[in-house]
């Protein structure tokens, strides 16, 4: 008697639409029994993804913007390497970000004095 329900389920399964996981943000929903391992499940609107996965703080982004405006960026990265052991702004602690900002502001002040004087 156990064979008949299996055949009936197999016949019903052929009639049901097949689920395909395709494209960006594809989702599968269903009922599963037994041992199940979920490998990867993610879904979020694009606007939330960019906010959630931001690797830098607003302060770090501001320092990065200040560095981009400098003519000699390499000097700042070398100083960061000597002072903090990294060339990456995103690796800096909040107090280190503040020190880097002050360092860049000092460079800007000196450059402005040279232009004026």
Description:
The protein has about 120 residues and is mainly α. It contains five helices and no strands. The chain has helices spanning about 5-15, 45-50, 60-70, 75-85, 95-115. Helix 3 (about 60-70) packs parallel to helix 5 (about 95-115). The longest helix has 23 residues, at about 95-115. The model has no long low-confidence stretch (mean pLDDT about 80).
Average pLDDT for all residues:
80
Write down how many β-strands occur, each being a DSSP E stretch of 2 or more residues: 0
Reported for the largest beta sheet, the result is: none
Individual helix count = 5
Class by alpha and beta content: mainly alpha
Q: What's the alpha carbon Rg, rounded to whole Å?
A: 28 Å
Helical content band? 55-70%
Given the C-alpha coordinates, what overall shape results?
rod-shaped
Q: Characterize the quaternary organization of these chains.
A: single chain
Distance between the termini: 99 Å
Task: Break the fold down into its secondary structure elements and pairings.
Blueprint (H helix, E strand, L loop, with lengths): L2 H13 L30 H7 L5 H11 L4 H12 L9 H23 L1
Helix pairs in contact: 3-5
Descriptors:
single chain; 117 residues; mainly alpha
Overview in brief:
56% of the residues lie in helices and 0% in strands. By secondary structure, the protein is an all-alpha fold. The protein is rod-shaped.
């Amino acid at each position: 008697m156990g064979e008949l329900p299996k055949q009936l389920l197999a016949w019903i399964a052929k009639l049901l639409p097949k689920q395909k996981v395709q494209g960006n943000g594809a989702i599968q929903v269903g009922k599963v029994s037994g041992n199940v391992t979920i490998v990867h499940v993610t879904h979020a609107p694009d606007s939330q993804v960019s906010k959630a996965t931001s690797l830098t703080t607003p302060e770090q982004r501001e320092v990065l913007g200040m560095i981009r405006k400098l003519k000699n960026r390499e000097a700042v990265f070398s100083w960061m390497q000597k002072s903090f052991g990294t060339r990456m702004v995103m690796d800096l602690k909040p107090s280190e970000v503040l020190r880097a900002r002050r360092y860049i502001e000092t460079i800007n002040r000196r450059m402005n004095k040279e232009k004026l004087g």
